[in-house]
Amino acid sequence: MPELTVQGHHLQVDQGDNLLSALQVANLPINWSCRAGQCHSCLVQAPKQPIPAAAQQGLSPEQQADGWLLACQCAVESDMQLTLHDPANDGLPALIETMEKLPGDVLLLRLRPQRPLRYRAGQHLMIWLSPQLGRSYSLASLPGEALLEFHIQLREGGLFSSQLLHGRPGQTLYLGAASGHLAYDPAWHDRPLLLLASGTGLAPLQALARDALQNEHSATITLWHWSSHAQGCYLQERLNALVETEQQLQLHLRARSELATDLRALRIRSRSTLALVCGSASFVEQLRRPLFMAGLAGPQIIDEAFLPRR
Length: 310
Fold this sequence. Notes:
Pfam families: FAD_binding_6, Fer2. By secondary structure, the chain is of the alpha/beta class. Helices cover about 20% and strands about 30% of the residues.
């Protein structure tokens, strides 16, 4: 039986056991959220040891070289010496600059990192309020901007968002490394972009649109957003101002109740179009077939779903 050595603890586990589950059974303080390898909350470090490739998928080359892995994606095959992730030691400190409530129960959070963060517009990262409380959120800002921006959906009974509301300017939070495939590629410069978002799935897609425009994207960018809130899109004022200055940007702000009708009317005017989709898992799933039926092949559809904690 493989043995896990974790900061002074010795655990015997069955070969092939899931590492996250094994650490939880032992009541060790391992963080977790999605269990799908997307949020990166369950990081552990196993330097200078063989690590299954699946356990490092999505991590940066620097993280991989330092022996970081995702416990939820790691099957234990041999003895391992592990160190649990500590946001205060391993994360990037960032100070709360401003917090602003927007329509639709969205909190606009701006942070000032204590050193530069490497990221691409549209990627996501972990925000830690404490060593045991962190969640993954998409970046709504652009690289090079002084502040990092996030759009936090406030949920009744949500542990993270309810505690964040008590935050104050100057308070220190800790950030993980940026990751994710939802980012603009300059090679797309002459391909029409169809950006489809619901809720705070707008955060990464509006950033991606602005990044494309800064990179002198020459084709049309069409941004759709469906809102479930009576007041409509929480970022409406900012987006309308952007459309006034960017001729190739087309904007459609719709109610979520109109989604099915809008999808039936969807027409793809160019075979080179790329569709980027972000929102809840049910929203992303609902769009896959209509996009395929509209003429987009699988590689032309890039999506990212917000997964609930499970």
